[in-house]
Amino acid sequence: NGISSLAADSPLPEAFPVLQQLDLDANRISDWAEVSRLADLPCLAKLTLSANQIDAISIPKSSGDGPPAFARLQSLYITHNALGTPGEPGSKVAAEAGCGWSAIAMLDNLPALRDLRCVGNPLFELPACEPALAREWIIGRVSQLSHLDGSQILPEDRVMGEKKYLRQCHAELYDQGGSFAGAFVAQHPRFHSLNQMYEDVQHEKRGADASKSKLSSNLVELTIKSNLEAHADMEPVLKRVTLSMSVGKLKALCQRLFKVKGGPRHMKLTYIAPDDSDDAQAEQVKQVELEEW
Questions:
Q1: In this predicted model, what pLDDT tens digit does every residue of 262-283 receive, in sequence order?
Q2: Burial level of 247, CB count in 10 A (0-12/13-18/19+)?
């Protein structure tokens, strides 16, 4: 029909007080604000919006004052729209509230929603976004679903999906340095409730953080430079190595880095401790020849 606007001369709830199903497939609706005009239809239980051009979803969370938006909507079909943007899949796609994965998270504000169909959107068609992974991320974001893209969500599916999604949240939070930025909250509004629900995932996260901390504390950063005349124009190489690395293994590393012939036994390593002092004599004191052979 080519519909792009749902504006009406009279309030839609008054015009359609008993409307239960509405099919708006294959139109030109691109702005969710047009869909929001249907939010107060008192009996609307099924809404199909497939094959439109919708690229964002915005559904306000109920404040408790009056009925929520789409209060009785049980089935929503939004397949083959424009949700998502090019880029890496997962929680980092489209940080703006209402776009990308944030659009899926908005659907958790529909209290009666049980059946969702959303295949065919760019968000789920990126190369690394496998169907099983996308399914888990949707289940984790929308708490009340019982059917997704025509497939039933069993209780064990929900537990597994929510746990995997929560682990993804923790991984992203770790990458951000533990900062609950606005984009993170917009994409993961269920994070805190899921964190309380699955304490075992929290323990996994603590254990993983402890392991990373232990490994990090056992690493040292070295600036390695060759004094060979043939390497005069080579830039120093920065490497992180374990404190327990032997001199022999360090020599073998240097041999690979600088392609030194003759084997590590013929190499001499000198450690120069970092010092901000300009005193050449003090610098010499901090030079130590490393030996193992």
A1: 666 667 888 777 665 455 444 4
A2: middle
